[in-house]
Every structure is written in C-alpha cells, then in structure tokens.
Amino acid sequence: MAKKATAKMKAVPSDGKAGGRSSRSLWLIVLGVLIISIGLPTVMILVVGMLPTIVALIVDRTPQKYAPFCVGGMNFSGVFPSLLTLWTTTHSFSRSLDILADPYALLVMYGAAGFGWMLYMAIPPVISTFVTVIAQRRSAQLRAIQKRLLDEWGDAVAKGPAQRR
Amino acid sequence: MAEAAPEKPEEGGRAGPPANEAKPAGGEAKVPVGKALLNGRHVVDPGSPLAEFDSPHAKAYAVLGQQPGQEQMFALVCQPGMPVRAEVMAALKGKQIEGVLKLVDWGPADWPPLGQKCMLVIYEKPLGGRLADANNAGFERINEYDMARVVIEPLLSGLLELDTLNIRHRSIRPHNMFFRDAEKQQLVLGDCVTAPPGYDQPIIFERIHQAMAVPASRGAGSSANDLYALGVSMVILLLGGNPVAGISDDEMLYSKIESGSYAFLCGDRRIAVSMVEPLRAILNDDSMAAWDLEDMLYWLEGRKLTPQQRRTGNRAEIGFDFSGQTYFNAVTLARALAAAPAEAVSVAKDGKIENWLRRNLKDIPLAEAVASLAETVRAPDGEKTGGTDLLVCRLCMILDPGAPIRYRGFAFMPEGFGPALAVEMLHRGDNQVVAKIIAENLPAIWCAAQTEHSPDLSTVEKTFEKLKGYIQINDMGYGIERCLYELNPYLPCQSPLVVKEYVTEIQSLLPTLDEVSETLDQSRKPIDRHLAAFIAARFGHDLGPHLSAASDPDEATSIVGVLSMLAIMHWRLRHGPLKGLAGWVASLLGPAVATYQSRTTRREIEKEIPKLARQGNLEDLFVLIDNQKRRKSDKTNFNRAVAEYAATEEEFRLLEASDAGQSESAVRLGQQVASMSSVVVSLLVITILVIMDIW
Who has the most CB within 10 Å: A164, B205, B319, B475? Predict the structure, then answer.
C-alpha cells in the first residue's frame, strides 16, 4: 500500500512536467502565428536572405555548430540593411517582394554569407599555425633549461636524487 | 704481561728509538759514503764486519773514528722485521753495569747494504773476547773456586742491577759471555736486546715451560729464568762443555720433565760439592721453590740455604699409553696430546685419561676437570663448539696449567705473544693461527686454568679481551695488524710505504711519509692496513669514524676518510707544512671532488686544491673537500635542479602528448575564433547601420 502511494506521489510531478511542456509549445505556436501574421514581410526577407545560414545549419553536424554561427553572423549583417529598409519604409508584403527582387540586396545578403564561409574556412589554419609556433618556441625554451641543468649538474640531474651516489 | 716499564729514557720520556736526537753542534753531521751514521755521532762501517761479536740475529760491525784512549765500540745491526727490545735499550743506554756489556747508544740508521734503515745498537767492545764459541766448546773449564769469583759474582751483580731496573736479561749462555778486559778477568753478559726475550736461547737454558713455547713467545719471565740460564751456564763451565750435547730438543725437554733439570744436567757427572747446593736450587723446576737473586746472594755471602728439589708434577706408577708411547706424568702426556689432537680427542671422549688420572696419578681434581671437559666433547654439538684443536688446547691447559698455550702446533706463553705474533706475521707470513688464537681468546681460558693467581693474569685477560674486539673488525686500523702494534709498542711500522724508514713513533710518521712521497707510487693511497693499525695503536685519540670511512669500499668516502685521518694527525701533532704528502693526497682527491654535483663547485674546488697542496696544509685541504656548508648547499641545489628538470620533462611530455591532437584542437579553436569574429562583425554592422539610419 505504502509503495503504491509513493508511486502515485512520484507520478504527480511528472504529469505536471508533461503538461508544462505542452503549454509552452502551445504558447510558441501562438507567438509564431502572431509574428507571421504581423511580421510576414520581415519573415519573408529573413527566410530568403538567411538561406545560406539554414544550409550551414544543415551541413554542420558538429555539436558546437560553429559554421552556422560564422555564416549566420555575416549573413545577418547582409540581411539587416534590407530589414532596416523594410522597417523604415512600408512594412508590407509588396515591399518585401521588391527587396527580394533587388539583385543588389540579394548580392549583399549572400555575399556577406559567403564572406562568413570564407572566414570559417580561412581562420582555423591560421590559428593552427600560430599554436604550433608557440609550442615549438616553448619546446626550445625547455630544451635550453634542460641543457643548462645538465651542464651544471651532469646526467645525475636527469636520473633524480635516487640515482645519486 | 710484557716486561714492566723500565725507567724513562733520556730522550723525551718514551722508550722509542732516539730518532730525532739533536745533531752535534755545527748542523747535520756528514755521513761518509757507504757508511752508516747513528744519531749523528757514531759512524758504522758495513765493510768491516766483526764476526766474533755477532749475535744470532744481529751482525757486528766496526764503529769508526775511535781514538786509542777512548772507549772501544762495536755495532750490532738488527735484522729488519725482528722485534727488538727497545724499552730495554732505552733503559740500559749509557749505564755502566757490572757484569753486563755496556750499551753505548742505539737507534735506527740508514744501513747502506740493505738500502733501508735498521736498528743499530752500539756496545762497548769486550777486549778479552767471547768466553765460549757457539757450541760452548773451545774454552777451558772453570773450577769451582774460580766459578764464584769470575762468573757468579759479576753476573749476579749485573742481574741484581738489572732487576732494580725491572729488566730480565734472558740471553744468558756461555756463548753470550765476554771478557770486558784484555786480561780476561771481568766477565760480562753480552747483548740481550736484538731479539725478543729468550729468542736466541737454546732450550737447554730455558725452564721447562718456556722451552715448550716457540722461541719468540718465551717472554721475559722473572729473575728465576735468568738464574736458571746462569745455572745451566755454570754446569757447562764447570764441566768444560755441554753435558747433553747431541740430544735432540724433544728428548732434552722430555728428560727435563721426567727427571728434573738438575738430575738431567748433572746426573752422575762430577760436580764440585760446593756447587751442588746452588745448582740444585736454581735449577729447581718449580719456579716458586727455586732460589731468587737474593737467595743466591745470600749463598755467595756464605749463608746456608736448603734447596728443595722437586720434579714437575706427580709421577704415576702405571703409565698412560698414547700414540705408541707410555707417559707417567701429566706434563709429558699433555705435550703428547698436543702433538696428536685427533687421537687426543678420542681418548678424552673415552674417559681413559680421566680414569688414568683418578686411579694411577691419584689426582682427583685434575680427573674431574678432564671429565667435565670430556662431557663437553661428548655433547651432540661438542665438536662444533670449538673444534678438535680448541678442545685439545683446553685439555692440555688442564693437565699442565703452567705450560704455554698449545694450539694447532703453536705453543706460546701469553706474556710473549706480542713478539711471537710479530715473528709469525713478519717472518713466516702466517696470520691464520695467531688470528684464531685471539678470536677464540685462548689466553682468557689459560688464565682461568691457572692454579697460582698473579696480578699479571688479569692484565693478560684485559689485554686479550681488547684484542678480541679489534680482530673482529675488518676495517683498516683493526684486525691482526692492530693486534701486532698493540702488543709490540716499539715495533716499527711494517707498511711497505715506510718499512724501510724504521718508523716507531707516531710523531715521525707523517714527516716520513712526506719525505718518501716522491719515491712512491702516488696512484696508491698513503694509508694501508699496516699504517692505519700503526696510527690507531700509537696515536692515542679515537680515530674510529675516520678508520671506518677510510675502509669504505666507495673510493670517494675512502679517500676523504684517509684525508681526515691525516688532517687530524697533522693538526694534533703540530707538524709543519707537509708539501709532498699534501700533493700526494691532493692527486687522489678526484673521486671526492666528484661527490659534489655542481660542476661549478667542482671547478672551484679543483682550482683551490693545488694551492693548498703547495702550502702543505692537510687540514685546509680537508676543510676544502669536506665543507659541510658547501656540501649541504650542493645537495639542496641539486635537489632543486632535479625537481626543475623533472618539471621540464613533464612539460615536454604534455607537449608531445598534445601534439597529436594539436591540429584538431587548433582547427576547433580557429572555427571558434571565426564564429566569434563573425558574430562581433555582425553586431558592429547592425549597430553602425542603426546609428546611420537614426542620424
């Protein structure tokens, strides 16, 4: 009897958790519908303009997702001027279509995304080379220390006090 | 155990040879080429031997430069390695004693024929020559009327004076008697210092127990020993020759024991009636009943004394058969048992000896003592507890307590063990038996077996207890060599390094080593087992830690130990600079310098060593090598360096380990940097655009 009561008591919070998750999803759906209904022109530009980021998100299978961050950051820098134009002029569906039809705007969006890719591809080798150089320099320093110790104390210093006469 | 200390010698209160005596005014005396100069005064010519004055172990040579009116002298050159009686030399030097040849001077001197220093003893030259030749033949017999005047009076007078100096002559025999004057009226005793007491005496002149011992171990004994030898000499002189010539030593000894010395020597021979009384008395084999010097003097003065003549030990009616011969006496039986140890143990085990002693000799205490020893032998581990030789040795001690200790064919009187040890080691090169005797402490067993107690016994026990302690330690400065120098206080150091220099005193050791250093192989250490033992026995300060270090198998510790020992001697004995010795030691300090880990410290020390060596200062050299502050600092810094090295190794290991994942982590870092840069650039662009739009 006592075991059953304990099981019921344990079951109550898990039921509450499941309920919280479903209500949160419900709220997200409501928010999404509201944003799309109110900001459809912005969403259109974001969806089309941020396509490279979406591709990067799909392509990058690492848990850190550095590629979407890198591409997305630069990509958003390219999309943001169009969004600013949309927000400061008429926030309408037709206006967003005009912007999306502007090759210059698209060039800025995708060019920025491309620059992001370029950063993603170029910086790691540079950093790697830099780290290797640092390691080699430290290694040389250690060798110099060891040589100084051996010159002063002989091979016994490498063997330790136990090996000393 | 040794002869009691004689009166202090003239030079420095110690009976050492007068090696450092003042030279005559005008500086160093010139030594003529090929001659020997003793104490800067006496020139001895090796080219002029005087065979008529030879002693058995010392050759006689002429002393040069003597004027006709002056005292005539000759020199005896002692055999190298022979333990001489330096304490007697010191006591007799310059003394004019009636009946004793005057010892004018003594000391070590360079002896060109041998290319080394030898002990030289200068005696006055006896103008009337020797009384008898070596065979005690070739002289006219002395009748009983002349005997007292010519022989007994002067020689007894000499022995009495020697007795006041606590000296026993121990070389009294016709062959060693000389006439001091050309008229052959003054008879004197010759040399007694060039060999151990009794060493040169044929056994006819020795009391029974001393005769049983090896010659070097007979010991100085008492005045009874001198009187006995005088008595035997009197018999020979009275009879005009040796009455028992041609009899072997063994037979002679056996007959002396069985018949008694007087009966054996005089027997039915024609001895003047007036001489019978003193001869019976001084040839009495019971030394307690024999006349002493005063008794002899009383007799000379005409007083009547009744001598007691006793044979050694009781005689059994039925003899004991052993090894094909029959023995009637415990003393002769003990001799026979000692000669055949395996058989002796067998008869002791069977109880045959005990039964014979009980039933035939009727000596119940002796029988019980033998029975008690036999029980030990019969015990399951009896043989193991001491071995056959030790058991026979103890059996002989019970049967004849006054006899010498007999062990593995080596018979010795405990008081004469020192010279015997020297002769065994230096002449025969055999240390095994003597070392075993000390290790087993046989003299302590002998002392316990003595029926007549004497204060000398406790001295013997203490001495040998100390020696046992020394022989059990194998380090330099101990062992058989230490025993040798402890028992022979005037024996020169026998180390091959200085043996030719005749070093008898600790004060002259370091200067001698310094002098000879250039002629020696300097790749060897300046201390060996003999030198270490000599130093330990003579120095008078505890050198235990130094000796222990010097004996260490590690070369560095050993040379530091040697240096420390030499340094402490240099300091305590207040010697001047010892450049040769310091240079020698300095050349061996490599391993000691190498004990410092710091190469800088080593270089500093190596730079300093030649400077100090040139100054000849061993103490400073030691302080330089074994400076505790420097050593501690070296150790601390070395440990620090080891830790530092280990840390660098660990860092290396980490660097190598990260090398494999280096590219991957660097790429990841690059991607991280790229994404962060992208986000930052994006934020900047947004900020700038917003600001531009607002403005």
Answer: B205
